[in-house]
Amino acid sequence: xxxxxxxxxxxxxxxxxxxxxxxxxxxxxxxxxxxxxSRTQGxxxxxxxxxxxxxxxxxxxxxxxCFASILDKANPLSLGNKxxxxxxxxxxxDNNYLMN
Length: 100
Fold this sequence. Notes:
This protein is mainly α.
């Protein structure tokens, strides 16, 4: 199952189980690495409105931002660790997908 199907299911009201969260976590790490090398291979394109709404991020946000937000909500990191959403924003800024 790919991340888009998981997020579509989540947006439709289905909960993401532990194994699916692990898959999303791996996909997030993989995507963060891929955007360093290719502008065409990462999931930086805009997610549909209903996915952004389900992830509780701004309309027009990337798929990457959406699934980082969903992971942060479903499986929060311990105190003192940077959220996945913050890591995504940093990576997008560092790789010139966003401008300061």
